Amino acid sequence: METAPPLLHSASVLQRSSAGLGALVSGVREQITAPFAEPTLRLGVTGLSRSGKTVFITALVHNILTGRRFPLFQASAQGRLTAAVLRPQPNLDLPRFAYEANIDGLLSPQPLWPESTWRLSQLRLTISYRPTNLIKRAMPGPHLLNLDLIDYPGEWLLDLPLLTMDFADWSDQVLAAAKHPTRATYAKPWLDALGQMDLNTTQDERAYIELARLYTNYLRACRQKNLMIAQLQPGRFLMPGDLEGSPSLTFCPLPRPRGSLNKSGFFATCALRYEAYKRHVVRPFFRDHFSKLDRQIVLTDLLGAAAAGPAAVEDLQTALTTVLQAFRPGANSWLSKLFRGRRIDKMLFASTKADHLPSNQHDRLARLLSELAFEPANNAKFRGADVSFLALSAIKSTRLAKVREQGRVYDCITGWIEGQGQPKAFYPGELPDSLAELKRGIDAPLAQVRFLPPPNLDQEPQGLPHIGLDRSLDFLLGDLLS
Ligand SMILES: Nc1nc2c(ncn2[C@@H]2O[C@H](COP(=O)(O)OP(=O)(O)OP(=O)(O)O)[C@@H](O)[C@H]2O)c(=O)[nH]1
Ligand SMILES: [Mg+2]
Q1: Does a structural domain hold residue 275?
Q2: Is residue 50 left, alpha or beta, with left meaning phi > 0 and alpha meaning psi from -120 to 50?
Q3: In whole angstroms, what is the distance from residue 215 CA to residue 234 CA?
Q4: Whether the CB of 450 sits within 6 Å of ligand 1
Q5: Which of 34, 227, 344, 366 is deepest in the core (most CB within 10 A)?
Q6: What confidence tier does 249 reach under pLDDT thresholds 50, 70, 90?
Q7: pLDDT digits (tens, 9 = 90+) for 208-230
Q8: Which of 45, 54, 55 to mutate to test the pocket of ligand 1 (most atoms within 8 A of CB)?
Q9: Does any ligand 1 atom lie closer than 6 A to the CB of residue 52?
Q10: DSSP symbols for 296-348
């Protein structure tokens, strides 16, 4: 056992664990005799909606499957990645990550970004490699690493604080946030409807449906692209999936009623539904998926938030801090029981869509993210995790262009801007040097445009073009392939 990397699960042990202790013991024995037999790394890929999770996984898998060389991913640069295949995923009850559909869309004559996803999905990529480690090399090959990629919405992590709050406390918090100037206009129809109701009396189901609808509309409006508000709970209201229409998603936050509580009144019933949401949605996610991750990449569209303005940057910071509380199980006793000594040992924070900026600003982008996520990253480091920050573009859709105007040369980027017939040069402006400045607001256009994926991606000799994908892989997998 000692020789096996601590965070890797032997696939055989995992598969047997549900079959009872006898089977588990035999699995452990198998691991002792073959310590390097098919270790598995479960890599969580998360980030708020539209942060670039699906594009990241698709590009990563495609570049590895097609054997592209990554200069900054040592195992690849040294030619030690011998082959890779997609294998059946370990959890047959989970949706499979739609790799084939995504890559077909990206490589099609009119390239398309993948569709937005709203649920967790999984994909197993098995990598065969030549180790450098002498002990590993002495073992008979092939040397394999199962990389289980788990794509899940960061919004689900935002639900973690619900576990420590009752309905009344949570409602107070949401109602206070709804008064913020950036949100108040959108909250108005919902708050007006609340103002007209007696919350302590029994209500028809139609009242629950209507109030939940108005509240969901408010959340949806907050998520609009130009607002980039990230703090939206409950996360599943925006991505209901199979739970759409169920009572556990048909409630909304409410002010505390005056006087004694009517047990069959609207407030009390919403409180029951809130508890059901926690029981049927929040807890199972943390128990069945989140607590089983070994490593994590957190994708952040900091440029999008910067373009939306100071409130969006503040909100993103709050959301990141909330999201990352989940990686500090000590702060939540229920979660720490689930982890039982396991921990995420590597965490990578990536600021996506870095191709919206010329390369001389990428370091600054990564630095701003490290300032933004300073507190949660520090906590993760304190708990022993290796933490890193970088600027990432999983599919680089732009090129650098120097544009001379009125005697000055500007670092521009050019690419196929959505809705325009041909590639255009675009001056993205300059990122400020510090987060404090970013929070004061910038007038650079930054990420207000959306680039299409470039055409003929499959003809690129170096594989799908990217920024920082190799460094991400080196950080997340490098030690396991040594
Ligand atoms: N220019 C550029 N745009 C990107 C890149 N990655 C993602 N995007 C843009 O960001 C959008 C969202 O990317 P996805 O990978 O679908 O993001 P996601 O986090 O999976 O989004 P949801 O599934 O909606 O949560 C894409 O449709 C692209 O417009 C990139 O590397 N470069
Ligand atoms: Mg997605």
Answers
A1: yes
A2: left
A3: 10
A4: yes
A5: 344
A6: very high
A7: 999 999 999 999 998 875 566 76
A8: 55
A9: yes
A10: EEEEE-HHHHHHH-HHHHHHHHHHHHHHHHTT-GGG-HHHHHHHTT----EEE
Ligand 1 pocket test: pick from 113, 393, 398, 414 the residue with the most ligand atoms within 8 Å of its Cβ.
Answer: 113
Angle at which helices 266-277 and 205-222 cross, to 10°: 60
Residue 79, judged by CB atoms within 10 A of its CB (0-12, 13-18, 19+), counts as exposed
Residue 477 CA to ligand 2 center (angstroms) comes to: 22
Question: In this structure, is residue 222 part of a structural domain?
Answer: yes
Structural domains of the chain, count? 1
Instruction: State pLDDT tens for residues 8-38.
Output: 333 332 232 333 323 332 333 333 334 445 8
355 lines ligand 1 (CB under 6 A): yes
Query: Is ligand 1 within 6 A of the CB of residue 300?
Result: no
Assess if residue 208 is contained within a domain: yes
Say what the pLDDT of residue 147 is.
98
Residue nearest to atom 24 of ligand 1 (CA): 116
In this structure, the chain runs to a length of: 482
pLDDT at residue number 341: 64
In a domain, 276, yes or no: yes
Q: What is the pLDDT of residues 36-86, one digit of tens each?
A: 458 999 999 999 889 999 999 999 999 999 988 899 999 999 999 999 999
Longest dimension (CA), the chain: 78
For residue 47, which atom of ligand 1 is closest to its CA?
19
pLDDT of residue 344: 84
Domain that holds residue 171: 158-282
For residues 241 and 158, the model is more confident at: 158
In this prediction, residues 119-134 reach a mean pLDDT of 94
